[in-house]
What does this fold into?
Amino acid sequence: MIRSCVLFLLVLVGVLANPVAGSSQVNRRLATEYLNRGTQELEAGNLDAALANFERAIELDPNYGASYFSRGLVRKRQRDFDGAINDFTRSIKLKPMAEAYLNRGATLKDKGDSDGAITDYNKAIALNPDYSDAFYNRGIAKDDKGDLDGAISDFSRAIELSPSNARAFVGRGFARMKKGDADGALADYSKGIELNPRGFLGFYNRAFTRKLKGDLDGAIADLSKALEINTSDVDALHERGILRSAKGDLDGALADFNKVVELNPRHARAYANRGMIMLLRRQDAEAQREFAKAIEFDSSLRADLEKSIEQIRRARQENASKP
It folds into this structure.
């Protein structure tokens, strides 16, 4: 009987001496529940609901690194870059993870800090040498800094680690194109498209490579594919209009420039190109209105426009003088 009492007292003393331990475990369990709810909301795209759940998890357990990491993901998507960086930093201090370095690096890149991004990608790779996404992201940052060889090396490593990484092929193609390797770029873009037929950038970038190689029909086809994926991309529409004009398809070109102006009423070059088509069709008054709009939105176009207008007028005069 005495022995039983002693054991009971020892257990009781243990609980009283460390009341926080039990409370801490309960809070961690509750925090994990909120973290899981927040993750579900984040995956569903409900950013505000996700944020509320992650903040509740942090209130319950301020030392739970996963909650800061997850809140950082939400803030990054909300373009609260400073808040996201603070959260990723807090997560790293509590528990260094390659994913946290990767996302902090990506957020720094979004803020224009390529050097800081590369530093974080290096740390992510140090923690996980087989992290394909870290090599891919570092390749993008190196490309931005003009280190094309380094970028190509990183994209190649990302592909070795993840052969189905379509983005890495497209990224390497872009770097190869900038180095003047049009054939290598074309091969990479084509592989990226094969792996991801719904990838806008694969078609968009391949179009410019085909244009450089003189394949205007192929370039137009790629831009049309890109526009099937993103019907409102102004740059793709404008470039297709230019190529259609070069091929003599003035109706198709005009349709593209009209759509550009509809989407972006201040697109100076679209007005300028639309004016050129009208001038070619001898719609001089309409052309002048287009040129005036173009110069209104971008006065730097004036000199080039004047040269182009003069060339067209000379060509018209020469054609008129021919028997």
